[in-house]
Amino acid sequence: MTESSEERLSALMHAGDQAAWSTAALVLALRGDGPPALVDAARRVVDDMGLDLGAALAGRPPAGTAAQASAPLLQAAAVVRGEAAAWAEQPDEALLAQGLASGRGAPGFLRLAGAAMPGLSEAVSRRGARMLDVGTGVGGLAVALAETLPQLTVVGIDVLPRVLALAERVRAASPAGDRVVLRRQDVAALDEPDTYDLIWLPAPFLPEPTLLAALPAATRALRPGGWLMLGHGKYGHDPVENALNRFKTVAYGGTALDATRAQQLLAEVGLTAVSTAPTPLGSPGITVGRRQR
Ligand SMILES: C[S@@+](CC[C@H](N)C(=O)[O-])C[C@H]1O[C@@H](n2cnc3c(N)ncnc32)[C@H](O)[C@@H]1O
Question: How far does the centroid of ligand 1 lie from the alpha carbon of residue 221, in Å?
Answer without folding.
Answer: 18
